[in-house]
Specification:
- Helix 2 crosses helix 3 and helix 3 packs antiparallel against helix 4.
- The model has no long low-confidence stretch (mean pLDDT about 90).
- A 5-stranded antiparallel beta sheet has the order 1-3-2-5-4.
- By secondary structure, the chain is α+β, with helices and mostly antiparallel strands.
- Helix content is about 40%, strand content about 20%.
- It has one domain.
- The two termini are about 20 Å apart.
Amino acid sequence: MKSFCYAKDRSGSAYHEFYKGKWDHTSFWKSDSFLLHDDTLEALGLCTVLAEVLPGYNRHGVTELNQSQWESILDHASQLNTEAKIALTEAEAWAKDAFENGNMITIFQW
């Protein structure tokens, strides 16, 4: 993977965790979560995409999204002149699995 990584591959702690399902407010760095470094989130323009698509998106808080919102994020990212769409394409299979086995993804930063 180019943009995202798994917890076992992270270096440091400035990551946004893409967590399958509703966050339980206790566990983090789960082995099946996708992580995106804060610098990468900014460089890709993904923070802008998330803020423009998700009402109440808090870059440094907890944000829940459903499949329809995920698809809106993908659509919006493809319309911008950033690499956000490439990174999100990398996460599509992971997101599909998350939605098939639950009804949401939670994004938060540690």
